[in-house]
Write a structure and sequence with these properties.
Layout lengths: L1 E7 L11 H5 L6 E17 L6 E19 L8 E6 L10 H13 L2 E5 L6 H7 L1 H4 L17 H6 L18 H13 L14 E7 L1 H12 L4 H4 L7 E5 L28 E10 L16 E3 L2 E8 L7 H5 L6 H5 L19 H17 L32 H4 L3 E3 L3 E2 L13 E2 L5 E3 L2 H8 L2 H18 L4 H17 L4
Parallel strand pairs: 4-5, 4-6, 6-7, 7-8, 8-10
Antiparallel strand pairs: 1-2, 2-3, 3-5, 9-10, 11-14, 12-13
Helix pairs in contact: 2-11, 14-15
């Protein structure tokens, strides 16, 4: 239960971590960024016997968390769409990846964005950034005297990917489930402490990237339809999961981190609200995804679309490096994201243009009941590897002109120095940040002749994708400009 919402003042010397005002000039877009403390109590849950269900382990543990809002300065200009993001914690830094990928659409549409801290492992970096601002955050473990049922050696020897290096007996990530539910119900309400009470809030969707998408999977599977959570209605009107890693099943509390999950939890089994999953080439088949594949559906208890974005890797130059604009604050705390591959150019496939359409499609689906178009899946071999064309690019999937009329090759992995890839320090491959490699000018001339001819080809292709609903018109125009710039830089005249 939330007991208090407290606005955190923003000054020239004290402002939110990774502030979008710095990166996106929100004020110039008529938007305002605001940050809040969220104080209350939450239950810690444990797995029950039946198919991934949960039950209360420890009730009413106190916490202090934070969330950030980005909304039109004038409520009358708000669309009524609310996006709540489970901020990604995997790198021990707050990464609001779904904001990064979707903010262009949110800003032009007048949507409300809310990002909530999802795991206490990021608090150390928040405090390093600004102790006065974030030093009060608290996710204390209500049972610190109960030891973990495993040792540190057990976690290091464990081969399953769901064991992440952020276990700490002093805090409890399992407090998050009630925090998320209570925040969603508060945003829906007209409670005086709701910071969005003056805005239209017609549709509320939950979103998350990578590990946070795994939190979203677990929430849908274990929490969203519990009677005390749903309260006779629905917590969220829809879901958009990005870059989800199927082998990661988020434990309901950290004491269960080494337990073998119920097989039901590796994929969405039932969802009564529209649900769109958007995967890149890094996760569409790897990390167990090819074994847990679901078909698109319009059934009342399984409203589901899967878009597999061909060309993109999990991290890209745009979404993981350039967005942060070489931020001196992140340099100061030694946590500026970078490309660590040995290749000249990291993968910079513009997947954000497809995420904009995915969010639009989700909200249209929620509001009208009309499901979006389906797209081809990426075909894989018996080992789950994506099949390639003669150029070395992956075939199938959700495509753009950059692959239908390529001027280069996009790869999902990069060669790295051993020890640099944080998921597997023993590997010389980074499985989540690929690279791109240009074709020669001679090859481009042989393929397309002239830049003018290439422009005609990609314009027609992009118009087709716009007609199918996979790209928004404004983003299609940006895509054409980007593709032409790449072709020109690579020598097509």
């Amino acid at each position: 239960m939330i007991s208090k919402i407290e606005r955190i003042p923003i000054t020239d010397k004290s402002y939110p971590f990774a502030s979008a005002e710095k990166y996106c000039n929100l004020s110039d877009c008529g938007y305002e960024e605001t940050e809040y403390y969220m104080r209350g109590t939450a239950n810690v849950y444990r797995s029950a016997a039946y198919q991934g269900d949960v039950e209360v382990r420890t009730p009413d543990a106190p916490y202090i968390n934070r969330f950030i809002t980005r909304a039109p300065r004038e409520p009358a200009k708000c669309s009524g769409n609310v996006i709540i993001e489970i901020i990604n914690p995997t790198s021990f830094m707050e990464i609001d990846r779904m904001w990064i990928l979707g903010h262009k659409q949110f800003l032009r549409n007048g949507d409300i964005y809310i990002g909530i801290t999802s795991k206490p492992n990021t608090i150390a970096k928040l405090i390093a950034f600004n102790r006065e601002r974030y030093g009060c955050l608290s996710w204390k473990n209500p049972t610190p005297n109960i030891p973990f049922p495993f040792t540190s050696a057990d976690t290091k020897n464990e081969k399953r990917i769901q064991v992440l290096p952020d276990l700490d007996i002093s805090y409890e990530p399992g407090l998050f489930w009630d925090m998320l539910t209570d925040l969603a119900w508060l945003i829906r309400s007209d409670d005086p402490i709701n910071p969005m009470k003056d805005y239209p809030r017609d549709c509320i969707c939950l979103t998350g990237w990578s590990q946070s998408a795994c939190y979203l999977f677990r929430y849908v599977n274990s929490f969203a339809y519990r009677p005390e959570v749903a309260r006779g209605s629905r917590v969220f009107d829809g879901y958009l999961a990005g870059g989800g890693v199927r082998e990661v099943v988020t434990p309901v509390n950290q004491y269960e981190s080494l337990e073998v999950p119920n097989t039901k939890l590796y994929r969405i089994e039932t969802v009564n609200e529209p649900y769109i999953a958007v995967q890149t080439e890094s996760e569409n088949a790897k990390f167990g995804a090819w074994r847990t594949m679901r078909q698109d559906s319009d059934l009342p208890d399984f409203k589901y679309r899967l878009y597999e974005v061909t060309g993109a890797s999990h991290d890209t130059v745009y979404s993981y490096v350039d967005y942060y604009k070489n931020d001196p604050d992140l340099i100061r705390i030694d946590h500026l994201p970078s490309y660590i591959g040995k290749h000249k150019h990291g993968n910079d496939y513009p997947s954000y243009l497809l995420f904009g359409a995915a969010y639009r499609n989700l909200f249209n689906w929620i509001r009208t009941g009309v499901a979006p178009a389906r797209c081809d899946r990426i075909p894989t071999d018996a080992q789950g590897e994506n099949r390639k064309d003669a150029f070395g690019n992956t075939i199938g999937g959700l495509r753009t002109c950059l692959l239908n009329y390529p001027t280069g090759r996009y790869c999902r992995t990069s060669d790295v120095e051993i020890g640099r890839y944080f998921v597997d320090p023993s590997s010389n491959k980074d499985d989540v940040f690929g690279y791109q490699e240009a074709f020669s000018a001679a090859m481009l001339q042989e393929l397309y002749g002239t830049l003018a001819n290439y422009c005609e080809l990609i314009t027609k292709d992009t118009q087709e994708q716009i007609s199918k609903g996979f790209i928004i018109k404004e983003d299609g125009e940006e895509l054409i400009r980007l593709a032409l710039a790449l072709a020109s830089q690579r020598g097509l005249k």
